[in-house]
Amino acid sequence: MNNDDEFYDAVTGLDSESDEGTSEASFKDAVVYDGTQRNNGSLPQENGIRKHRTTLPAPMFSRNNFSVWGILKKCIGLELSKITMPIVFNEPLSFLQRITEYMEHTYLINKACSLSDSIERMQAVAAFAVSAVASQWDRTGKPFNPLLGETYELTREDHGYRLISEQVSHHPPISAFHAESLVGDFVFHGSIYPKLKFWGKSVEAEPKGTITLELLKHGEVYTWTNPFCCVHNVILGKLWIEQYGTVEILNHSTGDKCVLNFKPCGMFGKELHRVEGYIQDKSKKKHCVIYGKWTECMWSVDPQTYEANKKAEKKDSKKPKSQEEPEGADNDDADDMPEVQETVAMIPGSTLLWRISSRPQHSAKMYNFTNFAMSLNELEPGMQDRLAPTDCRLRPDIRAMENGDMDEASREKARLEEKQRSARKDRSKDEEEWSTRWFQSGTNPYTSSQDWLYTGGYFDRHYSELPVIY
Question: Helices in 17-141 by DSSP H: which ranges?
Answer without folding.
Answer: 24-27, 68-72, 95-100, 107-114, 118-131
